[in-house]
Specification:
Length: 159
């Protein structure tokens, strides 16, 4: 039985959070898409900032190979980000433990909803974070069979 977890992590605990939190006021939401490439999170939506300034700041990070503006809608930008290295421990842990990111958004603090194939995957992820000294708060964990209706499932996967 799969396990779904809601977790909170400070931006300074993972590379994506550190790179994107350099722009005060930025609200970032990861796009739910299945990338064909081997990257965990290549697409994100950004709001709450001047997009040209955001782009300039992110592109100056030595960890970012390329930032591509895909769309701009109502002062929100959708970007594809390519990392210069694979130094992202949190995202690497998500990938290595077989988790699926159902949703993720943040600024100074990030909220993730992850789905694991089973509770063993969740335990491996938790152990991975402890070994890498990533301070993650697991706020809630449940199995889909614990939910009474589809609408309840939809509500719980939203942040």
């Amino acid at each position: 039985m799969s396990a779904i977890t809601h977790m909170t992590v400070d931006a300074d605990e993972f590379l994506l959070g550190r790179v994107l939190s350099r722009d005060p006021g930025a609200e970032v939401e990861l796009e739910r898409a299945v990338p064909a490439a081997n990257q965990v999170m290549p697409y994100l939506w950004v709001a709450g900032v001047q997009l040209p300034e955001f782009e300039r700041r992110v592109r100056t990070s030595p960890h970012v190979r390329r930032l591509v503006a895909v769309d701009v809608v109502n002062n929100q930008g959708m970007y594809r980000i390519e990392w210069a290295d694979d130094g992202e421990s949190l995202l690497h842990g998500i990938r290595e433990t077989g988790a699926t990111i159902l949703s993720a958004r943040g600024a100074d603090t990030w909220k993730f909803v992850l789905q694991f194939e089973d509770y063993g995957g969740l335990a491996r992820f938790h152990n991975y974070c402890r070994q890498k000294d990533i301070d993650v708060s697991l706020d809630m964990a449940y199995s889909p069979d614990e939910l009474e209706a589809t609408s309840e499932y939809d509500r719980r996967t939203e942040l």
